[in-house]
Amino acid sequence: MDIRIREGLYLRNIETKTETTIRPATIGVETKGIVWFHDVSKTVKIGFSKDYCKEDKMLFSVIPTIEDREVSAKQVSMILRKSLQGKDVDVDSIVEQIYAL
Predict the structure, then answer these.
(1) Number of domain units in the chain
(2) What is the DSSP secondary structure assignment for residue 83, as one 8-state letter?
(3) Rounded (5°) CA angle 36-40-43
(4) Range of the domain at 89
(5) Contact 35, 50 (CB under 8 A)
(6) How far apart are CA 70 and CA 74, in angstroms?
(7) Strand spans (E) along 1-101
(8) Do 55 and 90 share a domain, yes or no?
(9) Statement: the pTM of the whole predicted model exceeds 0.70
(10) 23 and 61 part of one domain
C-alpha cells in the first residue's frame, strides 16, 4: 500500500530543543502495522497505525498497489499457460507451486 502524508508535520524535541519537519507527500514505511514517516535526514520519525492512516482521509493519502490485489491461482495459471505455451518450461510444476501457497 502506498501511504503518503498530505500535510507537513512540525516536530519539536523539548529535551534537546531540536526542530524538524516531515514534508507533505512523504511516503510512509510500514513495519508491523505501524506506518512510519521520516524527516529528510532520517533522524526523526513519527508513526501512525495503518488502520488510522486508512481512516483519516484528510491527513493521509492511501493508494492500493499491485501487491494489495488478490488474484486467484486460477487466473495466474491461465496467464502462465498462455504466456509460456510452446516454451521449454514445466508449466504444470509452476502451477502446482502456486496452488501450494
Answers:
(1) 2
(2) H
(3) 65
(4) 70-101
(5) yes
(6) 12
(7) 2-5, 9-13, 18-22, 29-31, 34-38, 45-49, 60-63
(8) no
(9) no
(10) yes
